Amino acid sequence: MEMNVTGRRVLVLDGTDHAVPIVAGLLRDGADVTVHAATACAALEDLAQRGRLGLTNDPVDETTFDLVIRSVPRPRPQPAAATTGTGRVTLVGAGPGDAGLVTVAGRAAIETADVVVADRLAPWESLAWAPPGVQVIDVSKIPFGRSTSQEDINRLLVEHAKAGRHVVRLKGGDSYVFGRGFEEVQACTAAGVPVTVVPGVTSSVAAPELAGIPVTHRGLAQGFTVISGHIPPGHPDSTLDYAALARSGTTLVVLMGVRTLPAITEALMDGGLSPDTPCALVGDASLTSQRVIRSTLARIATDAAAIGLGAPAVAVIGDVTALEP
């Protein structure tokens, strides 16, 4: 039986990985979720840090909630996969966050998985499509929090595949757009593990589109440039020429750039881009918590900080952000 949980207060008494798909589904349906647990898995901690749910280990009054989920059913144990022969790895780009934006091929891979190695921004409710007993491994990389090294992720993929399992690497967005997916392909190939890549909907296009912003528009923008803001301008490891970007005449889309946005906007203005250039920041694109702020190059970082719009968010810089339907 389905229940309308939109706007309802829901208490979940489980902080383990098993609760994440159910919690993600509740959030998708508009519930006001609180998780009560002595300890919580990385994915739930991250959702709490992003303000998408409440997380507490203090006593709570269950009578104040509309729905209480006391425990999440554990999947039935699955017999160990045969170790004869080699399994395989499928990299699934799972889109910007809404499970409805996972491709048909991506869903088919999840439905046949023995092991799912999931990222922080993957749509966790999509794990409901997996077979009973699937092993889920959370390799979230939380900013300034829990993290799994890329070397460990590569090792997990190879070890489980060599044990004869179908391993699905579930990644937010597209695996090859700042997702380190090709590093994982190289690791699998070097180990003799067959690997397939299922492209995903990249947030570099989806986030602006979901906010009503086209990255190109006839007579206004003949191209768009996607950059990573993970490393700020002037950093020894930065390979970007911000002066050239400022002169490019293309829409600029910045991923992973909330923390460095003040430095990025300053570098673009130093490169000659007008401080009045229209900009937008799209947070939690495709989710019920999606927020959009429109401003100018000179003010976007300050305005976003003023309303607490933080990561994950996509910045869009260019005249297209001023367009109206």
Low-confidence stretches: 79-84
Record field, number of beta strands: 14
Number of domains: 3
Net shape: globular
- State mean pLDDT (0 to 100 scale): 92
| CATH architectural arrangement of the largest domain | 2-Layer Sandwich
Helix count equals: 9
What does it look like?
The longest helix is centred in the middle third of the chain and has 13 residues, at 150-162. It contains nine helices and 14 strands. α4 crosses α5 (181-190). It folds into three domains: 9-69, Rossmann fold; 88-201, Tetrapyrrole methylase, N-terminal domain (Cobalt-precorrin-4 Transmethylase, domain 1), CATH 3.40.1010; 204-322, Tetrapyrrole methylase, C-terminal domain (Methyltransferase, Cobalt-precorrin-4 Transmethylase, Domain 2, 2-Layer Sandwich). By secondary structure, it is of the alpha/beta class. Mean pLDDT is 92; it is low at 79-84. β10 (224-228), α7 (242-247) and β11 (251-255) form a beta-alpha-beta unit. The strands form three sheets. The protein has a five-stranded parallel sheet with strand order 7-6-8-5-9, with helices on both faces. It has a five-stranded mixed sheet with strand order 10-11-14-12-13, sandwiched between helices.
